[in-house]
Amino acid sequence: MSEDVTYVGSGRSIDIELGGQEVITIDLDNLDPNPEDVLDLLKEGQCRVSVWTKLAGEYWRRGYLAAAERIAHSAIESLQANGTTASSPPIYALLANIQIAHAQKAPKLVLSEAREDKLTNVRPKEEYYREAAQYLNTGERAAAEGGEGVGGTLAFLTRGIQQLATRSMDDAMRSFEGVLAEKPTNVVALLGKARILYARRSYPQALKLFQQVLQLNPHCIPDPRIGIGLCLWAMDYKSKAKAAWQRSLEVNPTDWPAQLLLGLESINASKTENLSEQDRAQAFLAGTKFIEKAFNANQKSAAAANALCELFLRKGSYKRALKLAERTIQFADTLTLLTEGNLRAARVLHAEGSLKEATKYYTTATDGQPKHVLGAIGMAQMQIQNDEIAAAIHTLDLLLQPPNPQRSVEAMVMLASLRAHPRPGVSSSDYAQEKAKARELFDRAIKTLEQDDSRTSNGHIPQHTASYINDDLDMHIEIARLWQEESLDRTTRALKEALRLSEANEQVDPRLLNNMGALQHMEGNLAEARALYEESLTKAASLGPDGEGMSTSMLYNLARVYEDSGDITMAKEAYDKLLARHPEYVDAKVRQAQMLADLNQSNEAHDLLKQAMASQNNNLNLRAFYTYFLIQSNFPKPAKDFVFATLKDHDKHDVYSLCAAGWIQYHQSRESRDPSPKGLEERRRGFQRSAEFYDKALLLDPLCAFAAQGLAIVTAEDALGSFGGGPATSGGDDPQKRMRNARDALDIFAKIRESLNDGSVYLNMGHCYYARDEFDRAIESYETASVRFYSGHNVSVLLCLCRTWYAKASKDQSFVAMSTALKYAQKALHLQPSDKAILYNIAMVQQKAAELLFGLSPSKRTLKDLEWAILQAGHAQRLFASLAADSGSVVPYSRDIADQRRKYGESMLRRGDEHLATQKEFEAEAQAKLVAARLRRQMEKEKLEAIEQERVEEHRRQAEKLAEERRKAREQAQEWTREVQMESDEERERKSKRAARKVKVEGESGDEGAEPKKKKRSGGKLKKAIDQDVDNEQLFSDDEVDSKPAKKRVPKKRVVRDDEDQDAVGGPRKKQYKSKEILSDTDDEEMS
C-alpha cells in the first residue's frame, strides 16, 4: 500500500493504491466540493497521515473549510480504527488550526439587544479557541502514548497561533521562540514573534522581523508588508508606510487589510489643512472607496466595519451606521475596537434621541477605557441631559486628573463651563472655589491651544481642534464673566477676543460693545468708552425691537461717561431721553440728583430723589444713595432716622445701612462735647453701638472693607476706652496704649488697602503713623492719598500734611520742614479762602518758624532765612490781630489765644534786630574767616607749586647729567671696540703667516734624514716645555735611528714648536725633525 503525489503538466494529483493492483489518481486542481467519495478511497486505502493532511489542506485552500474539517475527523476515525493513533498529532494540529480559522470569522460576543445586526445560530470565538486548545492537548497525549514525544514544530506553531489569538502574549512568545531556536528561518514563527513585538510597541524590532520574513518569502500570506507599514507608521514614517501598503496591494489586489489601511490613511490626509479643498475632497473620496472595498472583501472585519461606520455617521445614515457599529462590537477582538464600536453606537443613538440606550453604550465604553476622551465627553453629555451635573463633573475630572491624565482641550473647556455655573446645593464659599477651578481650567486650555499654535508655526500639521475651540465665542464670553470680579485686565482680553470673533462673523453683538465700553470706562479711558457705547447703541438700533431692551443700559452708560467727562449738558440730555422712554428708571434720576447736588442745587436734587423714593421705596440701592445724600448735605438727624428705618422696616441685614449707621453713631459721639457724667455715658454708648454696627456688617460680609475700616478707626482712637469716656489710665500707660492701638489699627488698614483702593485708607494710615510719632511714614501716606486719589485738591489731606510737617519741624528743629508745612497750609487756603481756621494755622506756622530760628545758634541758620522768617512773623502778627478782632458769632478758634499769640509775637519780634545783628556779625566773621582760609589755601597752593616746580627742574638736570655720562661711556666703549678689532686683525695676520710657514716646512721634509732649513726668529719667551723637548731630542742621534732595523710601529706624536730653533743660550743650532707616518690633528692644533 503506497500513495504518491505526482505533478502532471501544470496540474497536481495524488495516487492512491488500492489492494496492491489498482491505483486511483485524485486531481487536486479539480476537487469535488463534496469529499464523501474521496473519504471512502482514503479509508479503503488506509493512507498515511500526510495524504489526509495534504487533501484536507487543499480543500481548506480552496475555501471548503467544512470539507477540510470533515476529512480531518475521518482521518482520526480511520487512524483509531487501524490502531495507529500515535501518528494522529498532525491531524489534531490541523483540526486546531481549522478551529482557529473558524474563530477568525466568528463574533467575539453576540448582542442580544442588537437592533440592526442581529446574529443567530452562531458560536462565539471563545468556543472555537477552546476546542482548538482541546485538539492540541489531545494530539500531545496521543504523541506521548505512542512514544513519539510531545512537541515538534507543527505543534509549537499551532499552540503559538492559538495563544496569540487568545492574547496570551508571553506564552505565545515562548512557543515561537522554541521554534526559532531550532529553525531560525521559520516564517510562521517569525510572523508570530513580530506581531507580539508590535503589540508590545517594540516597533523597530518588529519591523526587522517583518522585513526578514519578506526576504525569506516575498509571496508570504499574510503579507509581511502590512506589518512593515504598521511599524513604519507607528515610528512616524508615514510616507514609507503608505508605500509598503501600496506595494502589498499591487502584489495581492484582493487583500483587504491593505485596502483598509490605505483608506484610513487617505481619510487622515483629507484632514490636513495644508492641502487645498479639492485635494482634501479627493483624498476623502479615495479613502471612502478603499474602506468600502475592504469591508466588502471581509464583512466580518471589525476594523473595516468601524471605519465604514464613521463614514455613514458623518453622512447621517444612522441606520446603516448603527448596524456597522453593532458589527464592530460583536466582532472586535481588541479593547480599542470594542470601545470604538460602543462609542459609535452611542453617538448614533444620541443623534437619534435615544438617550437611555446611548447612555448604556457610553457606560460600556467608559467602563472598558475610563481615560477615553470621546467616551468621557459623551458620558458627561448624557449626564448633563439627565440633569446630573455633579456626575458629569466627576466624569470629566476622572479624565483629566492623574493617573494618566488626558490632554483634551475639549474636556477642559467643558469641565470649566460646568464648574462656572452655580448648582443647587452648592454654598457660596464652595461656588467661589468652583469658579477658581473653572478659571484655572480655562487657563490650561488656552495655554494648550497656544502651544498647539506654536507647534503649527514650527512646521507641524495644524490641529482642527485648536481652530474651532479658539473660535468659540461663548467660551471667551464665559471667561470674561469669570474674571470680571477678579481681574479687569483678563476680562478685557477675553471680551476683546470675543469681539474679534464677532466682527469676523460680521454679526457684532451690541452687548459685547457695551461690555467693552464699561471696562474702558472703569479703567478711566473715557474717550474709548464713549465710542464703544455709541457704536453699541447704533448696532442695537439696527436690530429693531430686539435691540430696544439692550439700548436702555447702553444709553445709561453713555450718559455716565458724558457725566464723568464733564459734559454735563450731554449727560443731562441722555438722562432725559432715557427717562422719557422709561420714567421708572430710578438710576437715571439718581444720577441727575447727583449732578444737581454737585452744582449746589440741593433742593432740586432732593425733589428728584423723593420722586424716585415714591416709585421704588423698597429699592435698597436707592435708599443707600438717599442716605449718602443726606449725610453729604449735612442732615445728620434725617440721615440717622432714615437709616434706622431701612434697617427696621426693609432689611435689617443690609450691609450698607449697617455701615452708615455705624458711621453716624461714631461721628455723633465724637462731636459730643457734654462733659457731664450723663453726656459721657451717652458718648460711650454711642461709640459702642457704632462698633456693634460695624461688627454686624462684617459678620454678614467678611470682605466689607468699609466696616473693617470703621472698626480700625474705633481701635486707633480708643473710642471704647478713655477717648469714649471710659476710666482714664495712668499717665505712663496712656502713650503706650496709644501706640499699641495705632499699631493694631495699622494692621487692619494694611489688609483693607489690599481690597479697597480709596484715599481714605491711606489717610487713616497716616493718622495712625502720626499718632505713633512716625512722621516720615505719615507724610508718605498723606502724600499718596493726596496725589493718587485727590489730585492735591483735598483740603483735609493738605491740612494733615501741614500738621505732620509742623510736628516734624518742631521735633527736628528744622526750618525747612516748617517752611514745607507753611506751603501746604497756603495750598489749603487757596482752595478754601474763607476758612479762618486755615488762616489761624498759617499765622501759627509763620510765628513758629521765626521762634524756631531765634532758638537756633547762628551757625545753624542763615541771614536770608532769618530775614524771611521775621517778615513772615510780621505777617502772622497782622493775621492774629485780625483774627482776634473778628466779630463773627462763631469762629473755629479762640479769640483770646489769638490775641495772646499776637502779644507773644510782639515781644518776640522785639529781639529780631538783635538776632539780625548777631547773625550779620557771625556771617561777617565767618566770611572773613572764609576769605582768610582761602588766602592761606592759595598761598599753600602756590608754595606747593613752587616746590613741585623745583623738583621737576632738579629731575631735569639730573636727567641731562645722566645722559651726558651715558654719551661718554658709549664713546669710550666704541674706542675700546676699535682697539680690540685692530688687535684682532694683527693676530689673524700673524696666524696666517704661521700657517703658511708650516705648510712650507711639511713640503720640504720628504725624507726622514733630510734637514730642513734653519729659520731664525727674533725674540720670544722660552717655556719649560720647550727645554724638555730639546733634551728629549738629544737622547737619540741620527746614526742610532738609522742603525735600528726597520719595523712597523705606531708613530708617536710629537709637538714641534718654532721656538726650538734656538737653544737656551740663544745660539743657533740645527733643528732635527723626525718623520711621521701620520700627522694627527693635534699637530695642527698646536701649530695654530
UniProtKB/TrEMBL annotation:
<dbReference type="Pfam" id="PF13424">
    <property type="entry name" value="TPR_12"/>
</dbReference>
<dbReference type="InterPro" id="IPR019734">
    <property type="entry name" value="TPR_rpt"/>
</dbReference>
<dbReference type="Pfam" id="PF13181">
    <property type="entry name" value="TPR_8"/>
</dbReference>
<dbReference type="GO" id="GO:0006355">
    <property type="term" value="P:regulation of DNA-templated transcription"/>
</dbReference>
<feature type="compositionally biased region" description="Basic residues">
    <location>
        <begin position="1013"/>
        <end position="1023"/>
    </location>
</feature>
<feature type="compositionally biased region" description="Basic and acidic residues">
    <location>
        <begin position="971"/>
        <end position="981"/>
    </location>
</feature>
<dbReference type="GO" id="GO:0000993">
    <property type="term" value="F:RNA polymerase II complex binding"/>
</dbReference>
<feature type="compositionally biased region" description="Basic residues">
    <location>
        <begin position="1046"/>
        <end position="1055"/>
    </location>
</feature>
<dbReference type="GO" id="GO:0016593">
    <property type="term" value="C:Cdc73/Paf1 complex"/>
</dbReference>
<feature type="region of interest" description="Disordered">
    <location>
        <begin position="971"/>
        <end position="1088"/>
    </location>
</feature>
<dbReference type="GO" id="GO:0006368">
    <property type="term" value="P:transcription elongation by RNA polymerase II"/>
</dbReference>
<dbReference type="Pfam" id="PF14559">
    <property type="entry name" value="TPR_19"/>
</dbReference>
<protein>
    <recommendedName>
        <fullName>RNA polymerase II-associated protein</fullName>
    </recommendedName>
</protein>
<feature type="repeat" description="TPR">
    <location>
        <begin position="187"/>
        <end position="220"/>
    </location>
</feature>
<feature type="compositionally biased region" description="Acidic residues">
    <location>
        <begin position="1028"/>
        <end position="1041"/>
    </location>
</feature>
<keyword id="KW-0802">TPR repeat</keyword>
<dbReference type="InterPro" id="IPR011990">
    <property type="entry name" value="TPR-like_helical_dom_sf"/>
</dbReference>
<feature type="repeat" description="TPR">
    <location>
        <begin position="552"/>
        <end position="585"/>
    </location>
</feature>
<dbReference type="InterPro" id="IPR031101">
    <property type="entry name" value="Ctr9"/>
</dbReference>
<keyword id="KW-0677">Repeat</keyword>
